[in-house]
Amino acid sequence: MSGVLARENRDGDLARPEIRWQAPERGDQARRGFRGALARYRTSRLTAIWHAQGAHSETPRPRPGSLADEITDRLDQPAELPPLLGRLSQPALQALGFFELAELASIPLPTLTQALELLGARPACLLEPLELGLLAIEAGLDRPLIDDLAPLLQPGPNATLRVRIHPAVARSVKTLTPTGAPPALAASIVQPRESDGLEPLIRLAALWQRVRAEPLRQTQFGALYKRDRDRLEGDPVLAGPSALALAPIVDPAFFTLATAFRIGLVVPDPSGDQLAAAPFDYWISNAVHLPRMIASGWLGLEAWREFEAEPGGLEPMALRLAALLWLAALPESDWTTLEGLSEHLLEHISIHRPEEDPSEPDSARPASTRRGARTRTRPLLSPAARLAQGLEAVILGPAHDLGLVRVAEERGTGRRAVQLSPMGRYALSVGPSPAPPAYFEQFLYVQPNFEIIAYRQGLSPRLVGRLSRFAWWTKIGSALELAISRESIVQGLEQGETAESILEILSRHSHRALPASVADLVASWSARREQVAMHESATLIEFGSAVERDLAAAGWPSSDGQPAVPVADRFLLVEDEGTIPFDRLRLTSTRDYRQPPSMCFTLLPDGVTVVLDPARSDLLALGEISRFAERIAVSSAPPDSFATAEHPRFVITQSSLKNALERGLSPQQITQWFERRAGLTTPPAVTLLLAAIDGKSAPIRARRLLVIEIPSAELLDGLYQHPATSGALGERLGPTTAAVAADQIDGLEKTLRELGLRIDVEA
Amino acid sequence: MANPPSRTPVKVHRNVALLRLGEPILAEELLARKTLSRSVLGRLSETVLLIEHDACDAVFDELKRMGHTPRVVKRRDASKR
Question: What is the DSSP letter of B9?
Answer without folding.
Answer: E
